[in-house]
């Protein structure tokens, strides 16, 4: 079975692609992408540090290659991301003058959104602008431009990419306090006459701790604001993120404290992953009228960023396909969530 076929009448099914997937070097992904997915998100190649390395000098080559790949395989594309405090090119941090900073901000959004206009179907316009308590993160954008920057970003994006769905994207924004902050952002945008079409719930969750109730409430509450919901970066981390006996950032040394499954994944974990994914997709299906898209943050386990975070070199198992690209029990559980009601 194929995810995109099974969920065809419900929502789009996507995966994040990085350079090996875009270029076909990743053979397992080359088979899976056209077979399983109908939308893709560039995991890294459309971030500011990649597109705009030197002030005023844009390098669209890798982003364009992703677009060409998507076109060849009839995939939609979600642009990621126009405004994010992280992965900014170094020059941005050196801009002292506020007017110059505003020029960078305006020019970046305009140039990038115009370049990809008609080529991407949606944009994560602003990414991760909120603190966990729902207040605005004290990012370089807030510091230099004030609260108004989110409205400005959406207005600039709407002008440059008129037929593109515009999203606000964040993690943990299914949690009540952050969700409330996110709803305030939507309301501010609407009040200011800016267009926002959807909210992205990233969906970086943890095995056995997926906040199902908060997720369902969030889908309902965001939809009640008149916007679509997308699950934009779905994965379920099976490894502990708080680790003892290893320094965060230090390469994995093979110790069981930082990876209890260093000698392989027990069946019980495999089954729990399948059960968590099944429960999630049952929620998504129940609210399919509110959900535009469900995108996984990667195609298969070998590609996942979670192999390198917070400890580089650990093996993680967060996705539906294994390192050889074979469907896991979680894959069949997701399919069954739709077919065996
Ligand atoms: O490609 C280079 C490689 O050539 C080089 O040798 C290596 C050395 O560090 O770096 C490689 O690039 C890394 C890239 O991942 C590919 O693996 C970057 O340093 C690293 O910063 C980058 O991390 C990405 C991270 O965002 C930061 O941009 C991850 O791929 C990506 O999965 C992650 O995605 C974010 C979303 O954009 C926003 N939400 C959270 C999510 C997870 O952190």
TrEMBL record:
Name of the protein in its database record: Beta-xylanase
Chain segments annotated as transmembrane: none
UniProt keyword annotation of Signal present: yes
One GO MF term attached to the UniProt entry: endo-1,4-beta-xylanase activity
Similarity remark: Belongs to the glycosyl hydrolase 10 (cellulase F) family.
Active site: 233
Organism of derivation: Niabella soli DSM 19437
Record domain GH10: where: 1-337
Pfam families to which the protein is assigned, alphabetical: Glyco_hydro_10 (PF00331)
Listed EC numbers: 3.2.1.8
Keywords: Carbohydrate metabolism, Glycosidase, Hydrolase, Polysaccharide degradation, Signal, Xylan degradation
InterPro entries given in the database record: GH, GH10, GH10_AS, GH10_dom
BP GO annotations: xylan catabolic process
Reactions performed catalytically: Endohydrolysis of (1->4)-beta-D-xylosidic linkages in xylans
PANTHER family: ENDO-1,4-BETA-XYLANASE A, GLYCOSYL HYDROLASE
């Amino acid at each position: 079975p194929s995810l995109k076929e099974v969920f065809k009448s419900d929502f789009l099914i996507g995966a994040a692609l990085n350079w090996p997937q875009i270029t076909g070097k990743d053979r397992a992904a080359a088979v899976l992408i056209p077979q399983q997915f109908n939308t893709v998100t560039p995991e890294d190649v459309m971030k500011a540090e990649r597109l705009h390395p030197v002030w005023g000098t844009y390098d669209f080559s890798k982003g364009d290659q992703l677009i060409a790949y998507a076109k060849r395989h009839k995939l939609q594309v979600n642009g990621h991301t126009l405004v994010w405090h992280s992965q900014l090119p170094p020059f941005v941090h050196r801009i002292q003058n506020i007017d110059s900073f505003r020029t960078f901000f305006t020019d970046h959004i305009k140039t990038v959104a115009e370049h990809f206009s008609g080529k991407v179907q949606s944009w994560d316009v602003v990414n991760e602008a909120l603190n966990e308590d729902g207040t605005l993160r004290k990012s370089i954008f807030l510091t230099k431009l004030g609260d108004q920057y989110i409205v400005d970003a959406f207005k600039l994006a709407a002008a440059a990419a008129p037929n593109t769905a515009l999203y606000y994207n964040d993690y943990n924004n299914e949690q009540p306090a952050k969700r409330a902050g996110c709803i305030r952002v939507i309301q501010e945008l609407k009040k200011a006459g800016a267009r926002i079409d959807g909210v992205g719930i990233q969906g970086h969750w943890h095995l056995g701790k997926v906040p199902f109730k908060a997720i369902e409430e969030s889908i309902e509450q965001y939809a009640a604001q008149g916007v679509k919901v997308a699950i934009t970066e779905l994965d379920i981390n099976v490894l502990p993120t708080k680790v003892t006996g290893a320094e965060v950032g230090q390469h994995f040394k093979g110790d069981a404290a930082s990876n209890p499954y260093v000698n392989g994944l027990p069946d019980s974990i495999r089954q729990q992953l399948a059960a968590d994914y099944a429960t999630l997709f049952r929620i998504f299906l129940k609210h399919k009228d509110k959900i535009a898209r469900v995108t996984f943050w990667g195609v298969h386990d070998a590609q996942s960023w979670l192999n390198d975070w917070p400890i580089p070199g650990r093996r993680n198992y967060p996705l539906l396909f294994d390192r050889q690209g074979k469907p896991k029990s979680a894959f069949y559980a997701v399919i069954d969530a739709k077919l065996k009601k």
